[in-house]
């Protein structure tokens, strides 16, 4: 299949032009970009797309999402992370979902992602009560069927839940502690067997699906498991994807558990590397940032989720200055409630203007676009394959109508994309050289039928969810006290108003 886009405005985000738009042509042959530049010859038999009045740019990358939350979208509000997790990641009364429901849940996320310009996702997939190959396969089947590029994990926690958060045993009633203590976490050998089988089954499917290693967080996993996962990540050239210091509670956790910050703990274990991707990185000190920059890690900045959960604001300017690569993520589909990266771009661009009085250090639109494209690709170790329009890279791109209200009057295209556009101007979406969205319609699946099927299953799921919520709600008073206690502690920094 050969496609020729003629005379469009191109925003390459790489290849020497970076975020400077220019007018030119783009040739797709098979799954890759074959040529890009002005006045290219049109190959015989090519499908021609006239680019006058159109903007062509790389597909957006969602560097961190949890699709498993999608059935809770719009359900929870006004909870800090540690309380919210009781409901979104229940430890009591949870049971494995039917594979078809997992397929539809994943398809819900993927369909909205593609229609709003996200061509590549990193799904840090967690199933309650634990990962199962059949369920991971159901999610991957959805991504394969719809045509999106996806890196998918088997997110793992292998420590007792009560021992992952400080002070819980001071407040959780004894009978509930006894019940939770009886839950057997996955062992390191069992986890390694699982991820090896998942990698063998799913990695490389359709040229779009990859697997990764995802130990949940340093306080939630044993050193043995994290070190073993890190070795596999290095061997497979896969991301080591984890969460570090998202909340004030977690900033207290490092000193309480290890006598040092969680970043320092990871560094001392040898777990900060160029293939390490950290979700959040909010409550980090200057010393932490220096360690991260020296190691060449990536950070996924989840600007909307961090605000909804009251977690704080990552010091993105400091991270960039230190040499940390930054991508953008939606985070969970009920801590953000959508996978739309256009929304995240605007939030990220705005929130850092209010936490730094030095406006010369505010993020500009080009930096935000880089984080949403090439920076995001780097978090998944896909920067050589996607994230920019360059010869030899995968043809993952968007064609937008540049004559809509979002681009009128047209001033700086980059500012329009970050501050004015919301995905509604998208006309076509290509992934792997294939048009997967045309005029707002998904070309590979029947979105209306799939949504109707999911809606039909929701009453039974919601009835089950009410029971799970009631069981885990018994823990909420204790976890409220934990959060309040940690919030009152002095950790020598604030992430509600500081990125100076």
UniProtKB/TrEMBL annotation:
UniProt keyword terms in alphabetical order: Hydrolase
Every Amidohydrolase-related domain range: 55-436
Principal EC category: hydrolase
InterPro entries in the cross-refs: Amidohydro-rel, Metal-dep_hydrolase_composite, Metal_Hydrolase, MTA/SAH_deaminase
Signal peptide: none
Molecular function (Gene Ontology), one example: 5'-methylthioadenosine deaminase activity
Pfam families in the record: Amidohydro_1 (PF01979)
Enzyme Commission number: 3.5.4.28, 3.5.4.31
Protein family according to the UniProt entry: Belongs to the metallo-dependent hydrolases superfamily. ATZ/TRZ family.
Name this polypeptide is given: 5-methylthioadenosine/S-adenosylhomocysteine deaminase
């Amino acid at each position: 299949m050969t496609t020729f886009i003629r005379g469009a405005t191109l925003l390459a985000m790489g290849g020497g032009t970076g975020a400077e738009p220019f007018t030119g042509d783009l040739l797709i042959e098979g799954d890759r970009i074959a040529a890009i530049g002005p006045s290219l010859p049109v190959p015989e038999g090519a499908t021609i797309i006239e680019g006058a009045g159109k903007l062509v740019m790389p597909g957006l990358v969602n560097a961190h999402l949890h699709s498993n939350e999608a059935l809770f979208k719009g359900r929870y509000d006004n909870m800090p992370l540690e309380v919210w997790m009781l409901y979104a990641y229940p430890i009591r009364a949870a049971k494995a979902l039917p594979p078809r429901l997992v397929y539809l849940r994943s398809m819900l996320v993927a369909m909205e992602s593609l229609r709003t310009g996200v061509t590549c996702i990193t799904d840090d997939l967690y199933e309650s009560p634990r990962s199962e190959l059949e369920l991971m396969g159901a999610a991957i089947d959805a991504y394969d069927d719809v045509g999106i590029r996806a890196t998918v994990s088997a997110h793992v926690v292998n420590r007792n839940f009560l021992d992952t958060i400080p002070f819980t045993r001071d407040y959780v009633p004894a009978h509930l502690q006894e019940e939770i203590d009886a839950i057997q976490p996955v062992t390191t050998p069992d986890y390694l067997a699982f991820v090896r089988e998942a990698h063998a089954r799913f990695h490389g499917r359709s040229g779009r699906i990859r697997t990764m290693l995802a130990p949940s967080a340093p306080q939630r996993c044993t050193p043995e498991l994290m070190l073993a996962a890190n070795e596999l990540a290095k061997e497979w050239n896969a991301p080591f994807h984890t969460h570090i210091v998202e909340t004030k509670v977690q900033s207290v956790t490092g000193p309480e558990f290890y006598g040092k910050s969680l970043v320092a703990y990871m560094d001392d274990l040898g777990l900060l590397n160029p293939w390490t991707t950290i979700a959040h990185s909010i409550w980090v000190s200057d010393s932490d940032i220096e360690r991260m920059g020296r190691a060449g890690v990536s950070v996924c900045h989840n600007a909307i989720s961090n605000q909804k959960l009251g977690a704080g604001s990552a010091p993105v300017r400091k991270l960039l200055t230190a040499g940390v690569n930054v991508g953008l993520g939606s985070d969970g589909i009920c801590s953000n409630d959508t996978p739309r990266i256009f929304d995240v771009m605007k939030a990220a661009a705005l929130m850092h203007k209010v936490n730094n009085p030095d406006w010369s250090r505010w993020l500009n639109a080009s930096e935000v676009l880089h984080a949403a494209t090439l920076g995001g690709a780097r978090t998944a170790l896909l920067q050589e394959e996607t994230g920019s329009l360059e010869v030899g890279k995968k043809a993952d791109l968007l064609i937008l109508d540049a004559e809509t209200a979002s681009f009128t009057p047209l001033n700086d295209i980059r500012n329009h994309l970050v501050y004015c556009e919301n995905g509604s101007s998208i006309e076509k979406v290509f992934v792997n050289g294939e048009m997967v969205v045309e005029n707002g319609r998904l070309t590979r699946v029947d979105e209306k039928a799939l949504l109707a099927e999911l809606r039909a299953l929701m009453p039974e799921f919601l009835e089950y969810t009410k029971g799970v919520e009631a069981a885990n709600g018994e823990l909420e008073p204790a976890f409220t006290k934990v959060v309040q206690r940690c919030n009152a502690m002095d950790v020598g920094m604030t992430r509600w108003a500081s990125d100076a």
